[in-house]
């Protein structure tokens, strides 16, 4: 997907990019490639693939929900900034908090946000298991996103404690995710969320499958979740 196709594909979804926003994406691409030589940020490095599989794919969450009604987002395990930085470029009013357990990625994001002149962004080097127990962040966000971080049963425990009551959790998956959804049912009930929408679609050009799960938080999460680091990966809530 070249820049022109990127602009056109977003326009078809009702998202019109200004020259300034397009320039931000270009700078993002250049910095991603430059820093990728020093640290492992992405295996996808050619420009058309980055625009399709990172930028467009990240923004696809906005095809199914109205980000103009959202104020605060937390992106759990954003790595090189996906999906929240492309979303922030498109919706500059958002207050974005990113938590990632790898400090090198936090350093990249800090530099990136300076170069893109992003405001209202915060980057936190922490495991989500600790971050979710911090009263400054727990049950504070309108929306929590996660793309390609863990299975839904594990991911729910990391993300749902951060969502405020009546807020949403959006999980972005590369496959249908239906099996994962079955495994996560009990965890979702315990954590206080329920599935309200699921959208499956094909990425343009290469037709690979994507699914977006949208959960509403309906009640507070019991205090013991998320459990301490290491535990969720070994024993998802059964
Ligand atoms: C496969 S990468 C995906 C990055 C990005 N979301 C994307 O879609 O390209 C997973 C990221 O999650 C982070 N991560 C994994 N487990 C985590 C945890 N428990 N708390 C915080 N970050 C975590 C890793 O450091 C890594 O940056």
TrEMBL record:
E.C. code: 2.1.1.-
Compartment annotation: Cytoplasm
Any GO MF annotation of the entry: methyltransferase activity
Database matches in CDD domains: AdoMet_MTases
One BP annotation, GO: methylation
Alphabetic keyword roster: Cytoplasm, Methyltransferase, rRNA processing, S-adenosyl-L-methionine, Transferase
Cited Gene3D superfamilies: Vaccinia Virus protein VP39
Pfam families on file: GidB
Positions contributing to S-adenosyl-L-methionine binding: 77, 82, 128-129, 147
Role description: Specifically methylates the N7 position of guanine in position 535 of 16S rRNA.
Similarity comment: family membership: Belongs to the methyltransferase superfamily. RNA methyltransferase RsmG family.
Protein name: Ribosomal RNA small subunit methyltransferase G
Species, as recorded: Viridibacillus soli
